[in-house]
Amino acid sequence: xxxxxxxxxxxxxxxxxxxxxxxxxxxxxxxxxxxxxxxxxxxxxxxxxxxxxxxxxxxxxxxxxxxxxxxxxxxxxxxxxxxxxxxxxxxxxxxxxxxxxxxxxxxxxxxxxxxxxxxx
Length: 120
What we know:
Arc Repressor Mutant, subunit A, elongated, two-stranded antiparallel ribbon, single chain, mainly alpha, 5 helices
């Protein structure tokens, strides 16, 4: 669940945010689940604890997690079944994909054809 390779194109804290969101969206983490402590997660991901703290703070600002003083960070109950989170992440991936295809000079129709060919 926390095995992850960072890329050099995006800040690490944003990649950590996306990792947590992905684990929620695919059901590895559910409402009320406790996240690893900042130190534990920093050790698992081999990053600076300050980077982890920033990611956890952003997740809390977005309402994805909440903190119980002295107990740690937990997945928010308010996010519900996380369908909206999954859809939001899928939409972001689709937008990036379509922009990349457009940058390559591939039309919408060509993109659809490529996808249809991949589906077999």
